Hints:
Distance between the termini: 66 Å
Amino acid sequence: MKNMRKALAVLFALTLAAGMTACGETGSPADNSPAAESAADESSAADETSAPDSAAESSVAETEPAETEPPAPVVPEGYETVDLVSDYLGVKVSFAALNDGRFVGSEIKPNKGVEKYGRTEFAVNYYSDEKSKLSDCVKYTVRIKAIANDADQLSNKRYTHVEGSQYEGYWHNEIEDKTQCHYELYSENDSYLDGKISVEVDMYAYGDWMPMDDYKALTKTMLETMNIEVLDTNNLNDAKGDFPTGTGLYTIPAKVTIAGKECETYWSVKNGAPRATIAFTNENGDSFKIMDDGQNVPKYVTSRQGDPDKHRFITIDGKSAMNDIDVGAIMTTSVLKSEYTVIYEMDGEDEINMTFNIFMGGSGDFTYDKFREKYGDDETNAELNAMFDGYAEEYFKQVVYHNGEEAVEETSEGEADTAE
């Protein structure tokens, strides 16, 4: 096949040379015409491709021009570039913001309150009055989060498509007769873990001082210049490959042993945040998945202890815990969901806790009829609970709880111990 390509390339070069000779062209090595350059390139490529050794082929691959990044959006006069970086997610969002001389200053403030959910939010404010920064100002509230690939399907049906951006997006609140709007843009599928990045923007021009046309122009410019750059899809891992959660409360190890099997921890996207997830199959061939669900609300367990009919109150690794099995999920997902919330400690009346879910089944292999057949009476149901509780305790014991301390501290022997 290589010899065939070489012969065709040489024949093509000779044909072009003959045609140029008939038109008074020589086709000599000094000829810089496009046809002569093309023929020379084809002949050279054929010679290189037919080289017998792999080193020559590797050399050809290395000399191929690298793919170039698309040019950065042009920032119009009267605008400046704003860069917002989510250190936790490893994502940078950039856009052009209006700064044409009508403002006396600007500021960028991160919202620390949402970081424990694995998200990032910034308030970007351009103000014309130093003393009253929320009057006669333009404020951009930008939220950066990870979402599943199909998480925007509802937006497809309910909201208006955003035009003018390099990204797919939807208006949740379009520009009408007020200088405010809300929209959301998405990076490409699988651009982040097993999902993508969502950027939500609320834009306000406070007060009546900005003409509507100016507001529409600055909104249009932001859409046209918005850039979502994933700096590191593996940013969630620490130096050891472990997964410190967004709350900073605990770390999921890179490897977890469940049911006698060492499982690799991977990260999946659910409910607008990355989740540490492990999957395993037990000795009976049943498939399971354990997914971190973050820190829950205060008093989540203690406030529900008066409702024993709905929840099971148990002890996991000596700590108070609550379990809720969602049997109804089998009807729609073929998965049995068992949620655990475990109290690490109490802070006054508030809990410091963690929640994780254990999923059993999936992909149509776990139906409600099969569940009733296998766990339909009190005895078999108790066996099911004991199995789930056992997996939950194994998992919980391996999670590293920080208790407000640094994740790792050095011992006098130089070994890294987990802070208790």
